[in-house]
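Instructor's aside before we start: the two examples that follow are unrelated to each other. I chose them only because their records fit on one page, so don't look for a connection. First example below.
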Amino acid sequence: MYFYIQKLQPLSGITMAKKLAFYVFIILNVFNSSIIPRNLFSAEPQKSLPTGGHLPGFVISPYFNEQICVFNYDPEIRIFINAPPAELFDPNKRTEIALFALPNGNTIEQTIGKKLNAGDDWHYDIQHIGAQTRFLRNQSNETNLVTVYLETAQKSWPSWRAKYPNNPELINNLVTFLKNIFSAYDPFVVLTGHSGGGSFTFGFMNNATEIPNNIERISFLDSDYNYDDGYGLKLLNWINASPKHFLSVIAYNDSMALYNGQPVVSATGGTWYRSKMMKKYLANYFQFTDEENSEFIKYTALNGRIKFLLKQNPNRLILHTVQVELNGFIQGMVSGTADEGVGYTYYGMRAYSDLGACPRI
C-alpha cells in the first residue's frame, strides 16, 4: 500500500496561493512518498488524539477545505478518504466512517461528482456523493462524517471478489484498517454503496458468523443483488444487538425495466425481488408497517430502524442511478433518525445543488 495523488486536474476558481500549496503537496508526495509517516496507515490503532481537528497525513483540499488523502491498498483497491475541514472536525465527537463501495464501471472522481462542462463525461453528474456528504455535514454536527470511496482495478466489486477467493478476509482487514485510522475518535462504520458496490457489504458479512457491533448502519442503494436468506439471520442478530443499528434498503422495480425493449434483469435477479425477499425474512421477526401508493412501497419496522423504500416503475424505465442522484445517499445515511426528511425529499429535487460539486476533487 502506498500514498499517492493521481489525475491532477486544473484548479479553476481557486486562489493562486491555494493552487500552489496544493500542487507542491502533490509533487512532494509523488516523488517522495516518505513524506507521509508509514505508521499512520498501519493496521494498528492510533493511541492518542492529534492536535485539534488536523488529521495527520491528510492534505487540505482547495475545495471546501476538506481533508483528503488517496492511496492504493493491496490487492487492487484504490481509496479516497474525505474528512471534514480541520476547523469542523471535533476530536471530542464520534467519527462516522461511511464506506462507499463504488458502482460497476464508475471511478472515484465520477462518484464524487462535479459540475459538468461542455464535453464532460455524463458519469460525473449521476451520483454526487461529494455534495451529498456536504449536505449531511451541514444537516447535523453530531458526528464527524468521513466518506471513504472504494474502487477496484476492475471497476467492479463482484469481479474483484471473483478474482480473490479469500475476499471476505481481505474486505474485513480493509474495514479494520480504515477504522483504525480514526481509532482515536471513537469511530463507527456505515456500510454503503451503489449497484455492484453492495457486493462489498455481502463480502464483509461472509467473513464472520456475526456482523460486528461497530457497524451501526447498513445502507443498500439499489445494491442488494447478492441477498439470499442465508444472510437473513446475520442481519436479524445484528439489528437485535443494539438500538443503534439501522438498516436502509432502497430499490426500484427493475423487473419491469426495459433497455431496447428487453428486460435489464431477470424476474428474480434484481434488487426489487431481492429487497422483497429480505423484507419477507425479517417480517417473520418484526412487525412491519406497509404503505403503498402509485410512487412507492414502504416497509417500516422498529420505529424506522428498518426501512425499505421501493420505487414503483409502471413506465418500465431504468431508474438505477436516479435513486442515488435524487438524495438517495442522504436518505440511506439518516433513515430512521430525526434528520430523515429534513431539508430534502427522497426522490425529489436535488437538495445539494448549492453545495457545488466542484470542477475536480
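Example two begins here.
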Amino acid sequence: MRCFSGVATAFLLAFAAGGALAGPDGPPDNRPVRAGRANQPDDWRLSAGSLVYESPGRDRVNIHRYDAGAAAPVRLTTHRARDQRPRWSPDGSKVAFHSDLAGSNDIYVIERDGSNLRRITDHPGQDTDPDWMPDGRLVFSSDRDGDENIYLLNLESGRLIQVTHYSGGRTGGPTAAGDGRRIAFSSDRLFSWQVYVLDLGNGEIERITGPLPGKCNPAWSPREDRIAFMSGGDLIGTDLRSARPDGSGTRSIGSGVSNNEDPQYSENGRRLVWVSDRDGNWEIYEADADGSGERRVSRTAADERHPDLFLGSPAGRD
C-alpha cells in the first residue's frame, strides 16, 4: 500500500503516464527473461538466497526473481497488468502478490518458477497487500465491506475471516508475527498513518508508533523481536525504523539522504531488505537484521520495489 501522497505514488505515476494498462494479453510466458532496460548493464550482488520483487515496464508491473550468483533475474509474470507486492510462502515454494489482471485488484499465487498462476480471491473490491501466516494462511487488506480492513484466508478450506472492523480511513500492509498470534498493520483511521498490533486471540489492538504522522508498511521479523516500518512524509522524505512489538526501542535503519522504503525481513529473520532512491532510481539494499553491514544489491536502469528475501532451501526448487 502507499502511505504517502507524494514520493510513494511517484513510482505508480511513472509507468501510468504512458496510458491506462490494458487487460491480459493471453497466458503468461514464464520463460526466464532479463530484467531491466535494453542496452543498460545490470549489476546484481546478493549475498545469499533468492529475492522476489516488482519492477515496471512501459505498460505493466511484473514480478521478478533473482537468485544469488545468477547472471540475471528471471521474470515470473508477464501480464499487461500491475502485479505487485510479492511475498514468499513460508517454505519458499510459492509467491503471493496482488494484481489488477482481471480488473480490480485480487490476490494471486504462483510457484517459485512463475508457473501455476492461481487467482485466490475474486471480488469487485480491492484485495491487496498479501502476506503469509506461518501456518500457510494468507492475510491481506480489502475494502470489500465498503471500508478497508484486514482479512485472513485459509487456502485449503476457503474460510475468510475479517479481523479488523474499522469504519472510514485506510487500513493495510498486514504482516504476521512468527508465532502467528499477532498481526501488525498500518492505518490512518485517526487521520495519521500509524502502525498497530492486533492480538488475534483477544482482538485487542495497540498503536505502537506516534505521535508524529507518517508511520506505515510494517514488516515483522520472524524472530518476533522487531517490527520495521517506513517513517516520514512527502516534504522530509522517508526513512526506515524498527521497534520492539510494544513500540519501545526505536532505531533507524539505512543510510544516506534519500527515501528508504519497503522493508522486509528474510524468512529466518537474519537479513533485512528494502529499496532506496539515493542514486536516482529505486534499487534494492540488504543488511543484517539490525541494519548493520548495509550493501547495495541491484544496480539497474529500471526501478525495483517491494523486495522479499528467502535464505533457506525452498521446497520445489526449480
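The first helix runs from residue 7 to 16.
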